[in-house]
Every structure is written in C-alpha cells, then in structure tokens.
C-alpha cells in the first residue's frame, strides 16, 4: 500500500515537469484505456486578502486533465498548461506508480533532481541580491 | 433603414490580409517566435496574463504576436479564448508565505527574517539606453551566493503579533465576477478580483492620485514579494488535494496610517494586491486603490476622490470593456446620424420661421 501523501508528491512532481523533458524520459507509453480523454480547461486560482484572510479570485490558469487505465489501476493527471501528451504521460506514470512504485522510481528521481536543481539555481541568484546592511561609524562616535 | 450595409466584405478581407503583412513586417528581418516573446518580453507577457485573467505564458506570448504588440488587443484575445474553455474548479487559496521568493523588499523594516532580496529589478538602474543590446551580445550571467535555509514570513505577521495592525478579514467562498453580474456595493474580495485584472495604467493613475491627496491614505510598502508558488486543487474523485502547477506572482501589502474611529482602536490598516507574474507596479497600484476603496468600512470620510468611488473605479478599470465601448463609435452609425441630421434641419427650419413671424 502506498500512502496518499506519497502519491500527492508524485502527482505534483509530474504536473510541474516540463512536458518535453517528460517526453524524453518516457518516449513510449504502455497500452492504456482512456477513462477520461485529455481535456484542456481552466482552474480559478484563488488568493487570500492580506495573504492570510478571506479567499478571492485572482484569475484562471490553463490545466489539462486526463484519466487512463493501465492494467487494473486508474491513473489521474491534472497538469499545468495545454499539453495533452503531458497529461497522458502524467496519468500513465501515476497508474504505473500505483501498481509498483519501483517501476517509475528512476524517472521520478530524475524529475525530482532536475526540479531541485532549477530551484537551487534560482534561490542562489536571489541570495546574491540579498542586501547586507552595515552602519557607517560616524566621526564623533569613533 | 438598412441601406448600404453590404459591400464591405471584399474590403474587409483585403484589410485583414494587409494586416497580416504588416504584422510580419519587413520579410528581410527574421520572424519573431512565440518562445522569444515569452522569454524576452516577459513583463509584457505578465501584463497580458494578469489583465487577461488567464495564466498561460505561451498563449499570452501568442496573443502579443498576433496583436502586433498592442497589449490591450492581446488581453482581449486571451479573454476571448478563455471563454471557450471549461472550468474544472477553483484552487485552494495560494499560500504566499511559502513562496520561493526571487524578490522581497520592505520599506518599513530594514532588518527582517528572510532579509531584503532585490531580485531582477529595474530599480537603481540609470535609465540610460544600453546600445550594446543592439549588437548580438554575449550570454549574460548572474552571480550566485550560498542559499540560507530561512523562512520568509510575511512582514505583516510581525506587526500583527503586537496588535498594531488590523487582522486580515475572514470570509467564505468569494463571488466570481466572471460568473455573476457585478453588483454594488461589492465586497473586498470582489473588488480585488476586478482591480487585479483592471488596466495597469488606469490603476497606476488612481493610485498616484491618492498619493497626491485625492483620498490620501499615507501608504508605506510593508512588503513587496515576487516569486513562485505552487497551486493546489481538491480533486473530488481522488478525495484529496493535488498540486497542479507552479506560477509566478507579485504580492504587495501596504501599511497605512489610521488614527482610529468610533468603532476601531488606533492601529495601522492594510491595502493588498496580488497579481500574476513579476508585475510590481500593478501589485502596488492595486494595493493602494484597495486601501482607498475601504474608506467606508474603516469609518473614514468620503472626500469625493475618484479612487474612493467604488462604482467609478470598478466600472471603468476594465480595458477590454472600455476599449470595446470606446471603439464601437468608429463603426457605421449612418442611420442614427441620419435621424440627427433630420432633427437639426427641422429645428433650424422652425427657428427660421419663428424669426420671420
């Protein structure tokens, strides 16, 4: 049995993956039955007033969703953007992972490492622009 | 009287064909790709996503290309496309505290947890044209520094701890202006949606007017942060929330002077703005206008300033609506005008007769 949190993490990683990179890592798809064909739509993104208060509607984002059956497992995907192949691949990986996490462990580890590297690179550039304040000693205080 | 309304078809086709040629420009100059617009005109893309109220950098870049760089036209294209898509639901409200910040500054506190991070800003540039950009330059690089694993709490939380600032209001599911006709008075959540997708120039002008004294609110930038946040959504058939992507947002919160009123103790008040992409002028403008519109709930005087007038602000801030109504007067009004022409001729005839009698 696999926990919900682990599956959430896998699905999140797949939704944020670059579609072309996922296609490179998973060029051939196993046979799958479409339970819900890939469909492009939107999700209304909500924010909170003051960051922590009541919810408000910011605007929508494009999302593609898809449900596929591989073997006896239904794989779900909701991925950012309008790439149907991305949604199909994400759903397949979700199904394969439910059947046997080990079967897609290598793929997920690669995506994880590449995402971490992208985030690190961004954070390192931000860190370089962090202001280090210092106070000048005035003459009469010296 | 429908006369001479036919016959424009050939002219319209020819006009559109010519428009396509003008869009392409000099064929001797290489064509601009959508990816180039997305990567190199990112701030224009961000504006189109924010005012188009649809986060999709590829579509926004395509719209900019199609609109020949006319951003309001591009926003119109994006809004029109949006209406063709089904809505899957609403996200879980963003957790901006967990944002991976690329920029974060506060004008009210110098030293704060997480620090002041300048990020890729135009601030402190000299605004001198850089002629090296006319040549094909070398690939620029940015310096890096070790990452500190540090939380970046909202600045407001620091003031909130001491009760010096009003608490953020709580509430239920917000009304969505794209699904429900606007009604006044609008609550704050609805106002934030409307001005968030409103025209940047219009909101900038209104925000500036409050600084110059038309509905003054003495705003300090408590915090401005820009960065990436993950978006989560509850999926009913799964029974749990999943992350569906990562978007860049700009968030601004102002701290405003407030002396207290009959119902409120003396404390600071806040204005808030949250928009798509790196778009800080817009986030700042929204938070100033948000605060100005709150005069009534805070028991302040209505000074008659445009930025305080909710109906004026909300019904004129949308540039797609505004340009649609403004530009429709270019279209044939032959019959309307014919009626006016006949009326004025009759009035003149009557005036002549009266003068003669």
Cα separation of the termini of chain A: 69 Å
Structural class estimated from helices and strands of chain A:
alpha+beta
Oligomerization: heterodimer
* Fraction of residues in β-strands of chain B: 15-25%
> What is the β-strand count of chain B?
6
* Uncertain residue ranges of chain B: none
Mean pLDDT of chain A: 94
Notes on the protein architecture:
- The complex is a heterodimer of chains A (142) and B (357).
- With 142 residues, chain A is an alpha+beta fold.
- Chain A has one domain (4-141).
- Chain A contains 4 helices and 3 strands, in the order ααβββαα.
- In chain A, strands 1-2-3 form a 3-stranded antiparallel beta sheet.
- In chain B, strand 4 (219-235) and strand 5 form a beta hairpin.
- The chains are: A alpha+beta (142), B alpha+beta (357).
- Chains A and B meet through helix 1, strand 1, strand 2, strand 3 and helix 4 of A and helix 3, strand 1, strand 2, strand 3 and helix 7 of B.
- Strand 1 (33-48) of chain A pairs parallel with strand 2 (87-90) of chain B, so a sheet runs across the interface.
